[in-house]
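FIELD: query
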Amino acid sequence: MVPFDGVTPEDWQTMLEGMVRHQYHLLVGAGINGDCLGGDAKPVPNATQLTEQLITDFSIETDGEAIDLKRAYELVQDSRDRQGRTRAQYFKARFSNCIPTWQSSLFSLGWK
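FIELD: result
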């Protein structure tokens, strides 16, 4: 059985054999934390969700203007959130001591 659409049984077998032989490197991006719980017990957001959360949590007045994550991050630099935390304290609470869900299974594999 092949667990992914578009992967042939032969390719799946080759991939499994390569994993057993530790022939692969693991390179992940920011999305690896998807489905984790942050240190504040809230789901770790993606960029769009984090932008919305910063706007809400720091009471940013957008006046209907679309704000991206970079701009939201800059706007809250000298502000405090609704709980009185600085930007650094906010990010530390959100992204430290995360609780993995499926991610720990990646580390049980032998990566080159």
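FIELD: remark
The CA atoms of residues 31 and 46 lie 7 Å apart.
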